[in-house]
Fold:
Amino acid sequence: MPTILGVYLFKYREISLDACFAQLFFIHAFQFTESSILLLMAFDRFVAIWDPLRYASTLTLLRTAMMGLVFVLRGVAVVFPLPFLLKRFQYCRDNVLSHSYCLHQEVMKMACLDITVNNIYGLSVTLLTVGLDSLFILFSYVMILKTVLSIASHTECLRALNTCVSHLCAVLLFYTPEIGLTVIHRFGKNSPPLLQILLGYISLLVPPLMNPIVYSVKSKHLRARIIRAFMK
Structure:
């Protein structure tokens, strides 16, 4: 966000190499961590619907904190080698980024040397984090749907599914632009630059901006307070 504001408000269009590496490290680490949090939330919904009576004993505060810590460390660990893999290169190509921030898949294309190692590592990390998380989330919802369909009462079935709506919206907001941007950067060489820029901003800004709205809409108390605020 500081870089985006600097570009548009102060016309500051340069960034040092070390600052660029630090920026891409934090961006990718937070993206992978957010993907893991969405997976934990899917698991939370599955336990709550599959075995609600044992929910509190299954997902204790300690277990939840430990799972969260493991996924945060995973995000940091897989991204940690990226700045060092990029720092070994010399850069002699066009040094103009298509976004107002640095991404590994874009910075590595500016290197003069062979980027096969970076390409393979970056793709592997994406598949083993975002790709694997999305598959587990899909599997969780298949199991949730199977459990819900076994409920005899139609009302209870809809009530159980209704608890998943906000999380499904958050998943779509995160994974749709993220997967699209990854595919375009690696395989869409002839794609319009405007599409890359648009998807880049959507993947970085839209999920954190929309998630509070998505979850607050489901809350009757928040919805009532928002309506009262606008009615005034």
